[in-house]
Amino acid sequence: MATAVVAGAVALTGASDRKGKAEFTKITVERINVVNADGSRALVLANGERLPAPVINGREVESDRGRKPGMLFYNDEGDEVGGLIYAGKSGEDGHGSGGVHLSMDRYGGDQQLALYHHEHGGHMETGLSIYDRGLEKEYGPLYEALSRLPPGPEREALAAKWREAGGQQTQRLFVGRPRGISPRWSLPTSRGARAS
Asked: What is the H or E stretch that residue 109 is in?
């Protein structure tokens, strides 16, 4: 519906082609795609229902970010390189639940830096995190094979290879206010424990 309204408004101004110009005082849409001259994505701004899944190495990958509105950025090859997502509502316990998350991804991989504020159940965490993770082309196939194996020694051995390939995101630096703790900076150890 919103797309049709915008398309109709453009047509009325006589600017229906991609190189045309149109001026609006106000538009209401569910998603806006900003594209490059070749038609590839440069930026997407959308509500939670229409925000696309992450794209790494030219294909969509699974994500745990859920249905949140936001803005996604893409590199020259059409892969996601970061974005801004947010949400917020009152929980059943009366406490706020939600947050804002700005992330920056490495080429061919997942987020390496995140600036965020999250809160749930009366607890909140605000900070800047730097992560370490490998390239999706190296750990992705291992994860797919891992998901098809039943529990057992073979699965455990493949899981170790997946971790060695950088499949497990590791936090290397945190500066901010952890949940229930005073503001601090920390350098997590290789096992994920925080050393401040």
From this structure: none
Structure tokens given for 40: 């590839």
166, pLDDT greater than 70: yes
Span 59-79, pLDDT tens digits: 888 877 778 999 999 999 999
The answer to whether 147 and 165 have CB atoms below 8 angstroms apart is no
Number of H helices and number of E strands within the chain?
Answer: 3, 12
Burial-class residue 105 by CB neighbours within 10 Å (0-12, 13-18, 19+). Answer: buried
Percent of the chain with pLDDT over 90: 63
13-18 average pLDDT score: 50
Instruction: Tell me the two tokens of residue 84.
Output: 């801004």
Q: pLDDT tens digits, residue range 181-195? A: 777 777 766 554 555
Q: Is the CA virtual torsion 155, 158, 160, 163 positive or negative?
A: negative
Domain map (residue ranges) of the chain: 1-30
Burial of 19 from C-beta contacts in 10 A (0-12 / 13-18 / 19+): exposed
